[in-house]
Write a structure and sequence with these properties.
Helix content is 34%, strand content 13%. The strands form three sheets. The protein has a three-stranded antiparallel β-sheet. Strand 2 and strand 3 form a beta hairpin. The protein folds into two domains: 59 residues, Arc Repressor Mutant, subunit A (Orthogonal Bundle), CATH 1.10.10; 127 residues, no CATH class. The radius of gyration is 21 Å and the shape is elongated. The protein has 205 residues and is of the alpha+beta class. The protein contains eight helices and eight strands.
């Protein structure tokens, strides 16, 4: 007699982050059976969905603390970290956003999630910021991110001081020659006046 494999044992076979649709391939299930298992796992708090109709789930049995960056890239491969979170990571501000802002291309499906604030941007924006996207940072960081100077320029161009979540005196800049070069490139890309990055923290309200 064929051994019955429990729902827990099945979940142990899955990676820390997975797609619901993958269950039909991995276990040779039909879509109804896959949905039943997902429902059971979610009810027992063994998996957690990224959100919306993304069909991406964190396997809490394997990893208690979900790798949401990996999950987000799985659902929306164009994702790039932008905004205050970028500046916080490099120590330019102590402000902590409620949820990190992430830009994704509006050309592809966009899903809502409680983990990130998702902003749909058009392909023109992605083309402009392409020189400022960094993918070679800390190995613990999965998501690509805008370079800090590019992130600040984007915030000021789109929203301005205050509305973007920062005032000049919220900044504590340690600017390198590379940062100034990024700021000049971003200013040109966004059609902003030529200024020095280091001067931004000296501006008054």
């Amino acid at each position: 007699m064929r051994k019955q494999i429990s729902a827990i044992e099945r979940l142990k076979e899955l990676p820390p982050v997975f797609r619901g649709a993958d269950l039909t391939i991995r276990f040779q299930w039909d879509s109804k059976t896959a949905s039943q298992y997902l429902y059971l796992w979610k009810r027992r708090n063994l998996v957690q969905g990224l959100g919306g109709h993304s069909d991406v789930f964190a396997n809490l049995l394997i990893a208690q603390y979900p790798d949401w960056e990996k999950a987000l890239l799985m659902a929306m491969p164009s994702a790039v970290v932008i905004g205050v979170e970028v500046l916080r990571r490099v120590g330019w501000t102590t402000q902590i956003p409620d949820r990190p802002n992430v830009a994704v291309t509006a050309k592809h499906p966009v899903f809502k999630t409680n983990v990130y604030n998702i902003e749909a941007r058009d392909l023109v924006w992605f083309a402009k910021v392409a020189p400022g996207i960094r993918r070679d940072g800390d190995v613990a960081i999965v998501l690509p991110t805008l370079a800090p100077a590019w992130a600040l320029a984007d915030m000021l161009k789109r929203e301005g001081w205050g509305t973007c979540g920062l005032w000049p005196d919220d900044l504590d800049l340690e600017v390198s020659a590379s940062d100034e070069a990024d700021w000049r490139a971003a200013s040109v890309a966004f059609g902003m006046p030529e200024t020095r990055l280091i001067d931004q923290a000296a501006l008054s309200r």
